[in-house]
Every structure is written in structure tokens, then in C-alpha cells.
Amino acid sequence: MNGNEVKISIGLEGIYIAETKVCKIDGIAGKLWYRGYPIESLAADSSFEEVAYLLLYGSLPKKTELDSFAEQLKKERDISDNIKMIIKSLAQKSHPMDVLRTAVSALSSEDPELTDNSPEANLRKAVRLTAKMTTIVAAIGRMRAGKDYIKPDNSLGHAENFMYMLSGSKPNKEVAKFIDLMLVLHAEHGTNASTFSTMVTGSTLADLYAAITSGICALKGPLHGGADEAALKMMRTIGDPANTEKYIEDALAGKQKIMGFGHRVYKTYDPRAKILRSWFTDIGSKSSGEVKTLTETALRAEKMMIERLGASHGIWPNIDFFSGPLYIWAGVPAELFTPIFAAARVTGWSAHMLEYWPNNKIFRPLDHYTGQLDLKYININDRK
Ligand code: ACO
């Protein structure tokens, strides 16, 4: 490298931007820890409320702490008529992720602590956002289907209440556990694109609502959180499971990406996808109709992709591959997959902001200019 050359990392690949105690990913071993706890144990033994506390406060809660945190979430669940009106005006014409980002942005107008950037106020805002985003997603689902808002039921836990507000009836235990699992698995994942977007916005000392709105915007894309909806769309396009291999063959030959596969950090099986896979095979084997068909398609696609690109290219299933058929089994429409992801990830986004702000430094990377310099300005009438 001489004086004129710079080292450019396209997509910031391999660049560390901060120290953190929130999350560790070992992409080679396929391991993930939230605040030191392996994802497998949190998925098996914890709940979304407990994981949210762990991420936001830094340690697992004692029983009284968890009870009080769950109460705070319940107190903050309901949304105002103004937010309902915003959702209603957009729900049937915009994608739920677009409605969600608008509603979350609008929530800022109702938070009396919006401009208080103290750690205590930011923690309270994070709790409000965590409580209300799930309600907003359920309201979007209802209003999109032309139905009325259902008020939260404070006798229910976070995941159970979400399904109640979405469907109008209390989910069975298996569905409630699955939604809770999805919230746990989606709660945090290091400095991915949406967390980085959150941090970039937050680093300007914009408020938490602005930062979280940025996170939602970045999560929407099919290369990131939007891959869950895109993977299901692909499985539905394949239709008959017998078409799977030809579809994938053609897609790879056309240099298309297969949604739900590959990851910047994991070069092996995503541990979250592994956890979901066991649910997936269990539910798939007991299901009929569309879920059965989707299960067969997904398993054929997984086999072929691993044979073709697994060990050789480090492209394995990620968390977004198996979730679609499971959500369909649970009664969640495809356009709500990514909004649910956001309603869980708000905890990780907030945890990173809370950690970063005390030693805040604005993000301001460089780009390497390769254009011309000192061009002569030509009057508009003289330009050829
Ligand atoms: N299907 C087919 N080929 C793929 C896939 C895939 N899903 N993913 C990567 N590749 C190939 C690329 O075409 C590229 O090949 P090349 O070197 O011959 O050009 C190579 O693998 C490297 O891929 P990049 O896109 O450069 O890798 P990057 O680290 O930048 O991207 C990403 C990671 C965005 C996740 C990518 O794997 C992808 O687009 N996957 C599909 C979308 C997806 O599932 N996203 C969700 C990720 S998990 C999450 O964000 C919640």
C-alpha cells in the first residue's frame, strides 16, 4: 500500500466498530451467546420477557425483578387512538414494515421523556418501545385484514398476548411457546445491518425513537430481516415439492440468491436455524395441507443447498429459512414475519444504544474518492 492507496472494506466486512458485552457470535463454531448465556439454553428455558430484561439490564432477573419488569411491559402495552389512526390509514396500502416504522416514529410524539438522553430515561423508553411494538404489529395485522383493534389482555404473557391481539383468541400452549421462541431467537444478534443503522443514528445523539426507526428501516430488506418473508415466498413459488431441485438449480445458474441461506458471520449452520429446525421437523411431520407441502419443499431445498454450497462455500441455512412454514402453522400471515422480528430486536437495538451512548462517538467513516477534481464550472447555457 503506497501513500495514495487506502484499504477499503466494502460493506464494512471484517471491521470492528465497538466493544460490547451484549452479544457474542462465533461464526465458525456456529455459536451465539446473549450476555454470555448460550442461545440454546435461553431458547429452552427462558422467556422473551426474561431475555429482554437480560439484554436491557445486563443480567438475568431475580423473580421479583422479572415480575416487576413484566408488569412494566403490561402497563405500557396499549397504544393511543392517534397511533391506531395512523396504522388504520396505512395498513391496507403499505407493507407492514412501512406501517411499523411510521407508527414507531409517531410514538416519539407521545413520549414525555423523548429528549431526556439520560440512561434511566432511555431504559424507560426502551421498555415502552418493547411493550408497544408488539401491540402495533398485532394492530397492523388486524387492520390489514379489515378487523378492529383488540386491546391487550394483561392476564397474558408477552407472546401469548401478541397472538391474542392478532387473532382475537388465546393461542394454544404450543403456538404461544413458538411465538415466544421466535421473540427470544430474534431479540439480539450483534452489529448486523439494522443494529448498525440504529447505532449510526443514535451516535448523532438523535433520540431512541429515531434510532429504532432507522433499525426498522434497515431490517426490512430481503438481505437482512426481510429474508423470512422472501424465503416463504420462494417456497410458495416452488409449489409442488418435486419442483424444488429444478427451481434451485435454475436460480443458482442465474446467480440468484436463495433466501434464508448464507450469512456474513456464520460459515456453518446458524445455531438459531438449528433450534428452529427441530420445531420445524416436528410440526411438519404432524401437519397437513400447506404446512406439510412447505415442510417438504424446505427440507429438499435445505438438502440440495447444503450439498451444493454448504461445506464448499460456507452457505448454510440461517434463522430466516425455517421460520415461514412455522409461522403459517401458527396462523401468522407472511407480511408480519419481519415486523415480529423487529418487535423482538428492539430489545437488542436498545441494549446496544444503552451500551454505546455513555462513551458516544459519532460514526463517520471515510470513502475513497475516485472521481475528477478541479473541473471548470460551465454556465448551463454553454454545456454541450
Ligand atoms: N444463495 C446463493 N448464493 C449465495 C447466497 C445465497 N443465499 N448467499 C451468498 N451467496 C454467494 C454469493 O452469490 C457470493 O458468490 P460469489 O462469491 O460467487 O459472488 C458469495 O456467496 C458471497 O456472498 P455475499 O452476498 O457477498 O456475502 P455477504 O456476506 O455480503 O452477504 C448475506 C451475506 C446478505 C446474508 C447473503 O448470504 C444473502 O444474500 N443471503 C440471502 C438473504 C438472506 O437469507 N438474508 C438473511 C441473513 S440472516 C439475517 O439477516 C437475519
Describe the structure in your own words:
The chain is 57% helix and 3% strand. It has 384 residues and is mainly α. It has two domains: 23-222 and 339-359, Orthogonal Bundle (Citrate Synthase, domain 1), CATH 1.10.580.10; 227-330, Cytochrome P450-Terp, domain 2 (Cytochrome p450-Terp, domain 2, Orthogonal Bundle), CATH 1.10.230.10. The chain has a three-stranded antiparallel beta sheet with strand order 1-2-3. The chain is globular and about 70 Å long. The structure holds acetyl coenzyme *A. The site of acetyl coenzyme *A has 19 residues, from helix 15.
CATH class of the largest domain: Mainly Alpha
Alpha-beta classification: mainly alpha
CATH fold name of the largest domain: Citrate Synthase, domain 1
What's the CATH architecture of the largest domain? Answer: Orthogonal Bundle
Mean pLDDT: 97
Radius of gyration: 22 Å
**Helical run tally:** 16
User: Ions, cofactors, ligands: which are bound?
Assistant: acetyl coenzyme *A
> Spatial order of the strands in the main sheet?
1-2-3
What is the total tally of β strands? 3
